[in-house]
Request: fold
Amino acid sequence: MVPDGLPCGCGSRGCWEQYASGRALRRYGRERAAADPVLGKRLLELNEGVADTITGSQITQAAEEGDPLALAVYDELADWLGRGLADLASLFDPGVFVLGGGVSDSGALLLDPVAKAFEKYLIGGVHRPRADVVLATLGSSAGIVGAGDLARQH
Ligand SMILES: [Zn+2]
Reply:
């Protein structure tokens, strides 16, 4: 997604996962709260004044309370998610995107801005069928339940 971007666990740089994941959500929250403690007041309050260890659920709680910094963090994450989904849609034109993993536990807080970003970045959006963007029914457990199911079949 980002030439010479952040290093990734896969050995490459600038991978989507570094910008649109639960880990990215925490990083955005920690960086923004540290950079602007006034705007980050609520997040810092929730984590006893420490920016470095702010958790995803603290960001979610603050966003649900309407905290501007936490909502901006969600918007940044959603923008990257929507951008990547638009790229995938321009290649594959799927009927639906199902978001799983840790970020999917955020519900509408994530889904609404992701859908907006997806539309913003989708090339030729008025001429192609619009994919639905939904959350995985099993949320952050989808991967482990799938792995368990696969093991059961063998
Ligand atoms: Zn990677």
Observations:
- The chain has one domain: 16-152.
- DSSP finds six helices and two strands in the chain.
- The pocket of zinc ion is lined by residues 8, 10, 12, 15, 17 (CB under 6 Å).
- The beta strands are 96-99, 132-135.
